[in-house]
Structures are given as C-alpha cells and as structure tokens.
User: Which sequence fits this backbone?
C-alpha cells in the first residue's frame, strides 16, 4: 500500500534543467520517449535523480509505517483465518518497504540514510498512516480502500521510466491483489452482517473518507515542473486524475453495499463524466503531513524503538570485512 | 509512555520522545543479489537484493523476501561486490549481433535452392 508523490505547489518555479549538458539531456529524453527504461548507472538529470529518490523513499517509508495502523489489530483479529491473513498482509507491506528501499538505493542514497531521515521526521510518508485504526472495521477499510488507492498509483508508476522502481512495483502490484480482495471480503462481511457490524463499518468509512480523499495529494498546479516530470515519466498521472479514477472504481462498490459516503456533494456529473465532491481540507492535510496529526509522534517513536532495540543484533552480526557496494539493479 | 490502540505497543513501554543515535554506515550490512528458480528445470532468475551480514542470512532473508509467495525450487545469493557487469555505456559491443545472419537458422535458404534446382531440372 502507499501514498502518492507529492510535488509541493509552492516549490520555487526555477528551471529544473539549468546547468544540464544539453546533448546528454537530449539523449536521455529520447531514450524515455522510445519507451526504454533508465538503469542505475545511466546518466540522468539531477532533478530526475532527486525526485525519484524522494518518491521511492517516501513510498518505502509509507509501507513500513503503514504496517503500524494495520498491525494494531493483529492480536484481536476476529478469527484465526483473518489473523493469518492480516499477518501475511503486514509482512507483505514490510517486504515492499525492503524492495523500495533497494530501488532507491540504486540512485545513491543508502538505506541507513533513508531510515535516519524517517526517524528524525525529515522524510515524509503517506499522510493516511498518521490516523488511528480505532476498530477492526478501520483495519478493514484501510485494507480495502487505502490499498485500492495505492494500487491505482502503483499501476501507473510501474509504467514509469526508472527500471529498478518499475521492477519493484510489478512485484508489489502482484502481491497486493490479495490485499484488495482480502479487504473487500472483510468489508463485505461487516456490511452484510448485523446492524452493529454495519454501523461499525459505516463509522470507519466516515472516519477514513477525508484521509482517502487526501491520499492522492492536492490538485497539481500545472507547472513547467510537473510537465517535465511527466515527460521524464517520473510522474505518470496528475493527482486529480488518479482521484477521479479511484472514485470511479470504488464509489459504486461502496454504494452497492448500501453504505454512504460522508460527502453530500459527491456525485458523478454525467456531462463531464467527472466526479464532483467537497474540496478536501488541504490545511488539515498540510498540518498533519508536517507532524501535527493524531499519530505522527507515536508512529515515529515506535519506529525508533524498533531500530534501537534491534541495533545490538545487527551490530553483533556485522563483520569488519563488509564493504558496501551500491546494488546493481 | 505511549498509550496505544495497539496493545503490543503499549506493552513495550515506549517513550514518545525516545531520541536515538543515528544509524551508522553498514548498520544495514552489505547487499546480496538474489537469484530465484521457480521450479526444477527453470533458469535461476535475478529477482532483486537483500541486505545481510553473511551468505547464510542472505539466503534466509532471500527466502522471506522472494520465496514467501508462489512456488520456489531453489535460490542463490551472490554478494553484490562479486558481480562483474558490463556497462550500458558499452552496449555498442552487441550491436553487430543482429547482422550476423550466418549464426541464425533463418540465414540459410535451403528449400529455395532445392525448389529452384527441381524447377530447372524439370524444364
């Protein structure tokens, strides 16, 4: 599961290709235009490398932090089968973090540096995981709808231009198909169950709707910057396009279960073929992403605790002959 | 202490402001390239890397990371440092290969020659 690349709309509109060798840049762009992938040791523009590191690293952090709200319910999953499935899903998410850290590493940032930036709060991760999973139904909504959003994003990015990221995403998407099905199955169980179960899942949906709408990020300001990143196939679709795709695929499925979406303005405009909705509260989004959400502090403290308590084991296993080499692919 | 919705976190008695020393270089060890064989008779295919302190643990992590879904017959791990690779920059060293028709079965038009011979013989 994951969140989305977030290009800060307030970023200075400086030219991101200033100072690049025009011949190499032209070759690089021609390669992408031919549909060829870029591999780790190829020449690439500084901004391409920088944006990819940021994106892939944030994606990796999101996987590892996303395991925390979901893991909340492992001990109390209703029934042995669901407990097994949830453990498998959480293990997958941590495995996905490893795949993504590896892809980011090929661009020259070490895994230690990425983890340091996560636990000090310097790097971001998907905002949705700063919200709590109050009940079992919250975990079900996460597994269904957050994973659904993530898959839309990941399927798009898997067609990007950077080889190692595409390979990691292909593997991730394959594994996540079970997550989505598992989440849907759980939500359906609750929605077709007793009045108490229906109430529980409706309340969880109400709590998670605003973070879900935040999930794809604010509308992209169509800037020169966005345009270049799309030409380089770093960014594959605008945030609004992905949000529309999500609404199109999942709102009917939610309504089909007789559940309501807590947005009175939500409807599909038959003329434009687009969904209309209440503009999400982007001030809250910014506030939470900058550290002031209900769970930010806990998430990072738990992560630091895990790093610290595992440290002696990692050190004991280390040998002085080890030498770090950037992975090949 | 964190009072979490996750009972495991609460039991761990974690301070909210638990500053820790940064991870040092090689804290996460070096990397091994992993090769995965789906079933006997298949080629081993490169599937990615793992970080590990030694080959035995690289195999263990390789199994968890690349063998936890679907079927697996066998995996290999090779220290990244021990892989010698050609450079994409030198891709031109492979460029003449498609021209070498004499290395391909399709480069030999035997039937054309036979048919031509038979036709001429009849005439």
Assistant:
């Amino acid at each position: 599961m994951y969140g989305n690349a977030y290009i800060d709309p307030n970023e200075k509109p400086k030219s991101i290709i200033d100072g690049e060798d025009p011949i190499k840049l032209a070759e690089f762009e021609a390669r992408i235009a031919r549909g060829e992938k870029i591999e780790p040791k190829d020449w690439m523009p500084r901004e391409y490398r920088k944006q990819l590191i940021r994106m892939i690293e944030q994606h990796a952090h999101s996987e590892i932090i996303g395991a925390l709200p979901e893991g909340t319910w492992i001990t109390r999953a209703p029934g042995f089968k669901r407990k097994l499935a949830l453990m498998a899903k959480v293990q997958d998410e941590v495995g996905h973090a490893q795949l993504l850290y590896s892809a980011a590493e090929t661009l020259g940032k070490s895994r230690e540096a990425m983890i340091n930036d996560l636990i000090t709060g310097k790097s971001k991760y998907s905002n949705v995981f700063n919200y709590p999973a109050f009940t079992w139904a919250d975990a079900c909504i996460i597994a269904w709808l957050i994973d659904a959003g993530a898959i839309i994003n990941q399927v798009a990015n898997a067609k990007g231009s950077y080889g190692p990221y595409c390979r990691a995403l292909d593997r991730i998407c394959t594994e996540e198909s079970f997550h989505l099905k598992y989440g849907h199955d759980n939500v359906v169980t609750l929605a077709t169950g007793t009045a108490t179960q229906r109430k529980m899942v409706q309340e969880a949906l109400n709590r998670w709707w605003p973070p879900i709408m935040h999930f794809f990020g604010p509308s992209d300001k169509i800037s020169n910057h966005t345009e270049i990143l799309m030409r380089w196939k770093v960014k594959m679709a605008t945030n609004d396009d992905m949000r529309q795709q999500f609404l199109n695929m999942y709102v009917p499925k939610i309504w089909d279960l007789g559940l309501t979406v807590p947005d009175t303005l939500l409807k599909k405009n038959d003329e434009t073929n687009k969904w209309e909705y209440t503009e999400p509260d982007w001030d809250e989004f910014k506030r939470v992403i900058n550290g002031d959400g209900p769970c930010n502090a806990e998430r990072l403290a738990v992560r630091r605790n895990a790093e610290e308590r595992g440290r002696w084991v990692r050190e004991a296993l280390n040998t002085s002959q080890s030498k770090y080499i950037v992975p090949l692919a | 202490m964190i009072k979490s919705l996750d009972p495991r976190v609460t039991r761990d008695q974690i301070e909210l402001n638990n500053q820790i020393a940064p991870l040092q270089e090689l804290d996460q060890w070096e990397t091994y390239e992993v090769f995965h064989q789906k079933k006997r008779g298949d080629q081993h295919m490169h599937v990615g890397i793992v970080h590990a302190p030694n080959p035995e643990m690289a195999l263990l992590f390789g199994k968890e990371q690349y063998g936890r879904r679907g079927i697996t017959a066998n995996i290999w791990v090779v220290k990244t440092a021990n892989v010698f690779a050609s450079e994409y920059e030198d891709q031109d060293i492979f460029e003449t290969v498609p021209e070498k028709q004499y290395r391909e079965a399709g480069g030999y038009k035997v039937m054309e020659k036979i048919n031509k011979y038979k036709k001429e013989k009849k005439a």
